[in-house]
Amino acid sequence: xxxxxxxxxxxxxxxxDADHHDALSRAVGNVLSTDIALETYAQIIDGLPLGNxxxxxxxxxxxxxxxxxxxxxxxxxALERAQEMRDAFNIDLLKFEPKLLQTYQSASTSTQQFxxxxxxxxxxxxxxxxxxxxxxxxxxxxxxxxxxxGLTIRxxxxxxxPANGWLPTVPYPTLFTHPGFTAVEQYPNGKADLVGYWxxxxxxxxxxxxxxxxxxxxxxxxxxxxxxxxxxxxxLVYQLLDEQQEALLNFITALSSDSxxxxxxIPLSSSAENTVRIKPADARHIHKIYRDPWEILAQExxxxxxxxxxxxxxxSATDHPEVEDLLRRLLNRRD
Length: 335
Hints:
Layout: H1 18-32, H2 35-46, H3 51-55, H4 78-88, H5 98-105, H6 112-136, H7 153-158, H8 191-204, E1 207-211, E2 225-227, E3 237-239, H9 242-252, E4 277-278, H10 280-285, E5 289-290, H11 298-301, H12 321-334
Antiparallel strand pairs: 1-2, 1-5, 2-3, 3-4
């Protein structure tokens, strides 16, 4: 059952002190200034992702005959509305959980803890913008596709391949879905939160997760983790390298979008060097790596991790780079 969320319990950032408020506004502005952010939010305003973007996920549930392949460019008006949104954006319009505001405000701006909380707040802000656009924005796609065309948002989202002896594949509630974040009944904003996680992943390179296993002191909090949906990359939760995290933090803390580091570090991606990797279920339930408490499913809490259905049953070098190194050493030994 979907959780009920009252906007009365959420708060604006208006009550933050000037330093914390301005740092957050700059951080979100720096991200919104990127081409990947503009394209991502324009697709939400459109109402459907571009075909190549929809396919650019592991476990996408798509079929070669899926009509999303006809959506090769944004519908007229989507990009322009996204640009207008970006130009008029005001962080004060968003509402956040009081605990998030409190932990951010309590972090001294001269500490690493502040930078990590700023990153967390920025990720949540990107998520919230996507939620708002999905819930409130008038999608432009259906303005250009008649109901009888078979190419409306609903038609394309709910399309299933003909049976022909194959088991049916139930589509996601929206094509704006990160396959690692699909528990729509658990999320405060329901289907809109699917879109929020998708947008974070598209823009930053993954959903941003944190080690919640204990209350960390100012400077000893571990590096953040990402959970990405990019194909040919790992589906596992992976920890950012020091240089990846520093590049990301430097980017969001730049004094303006004109002074952000070049080249732009987002979206980030994993490589064989990201050796700290954890199965998503184990990350949440054993290692306490997550961002929001509703990411932990009630039905999963009742099962030991070994009973989870795994995303992949084959051990690959993509997910476990140490396997490739082991095979190389074994082959060298044979020589």
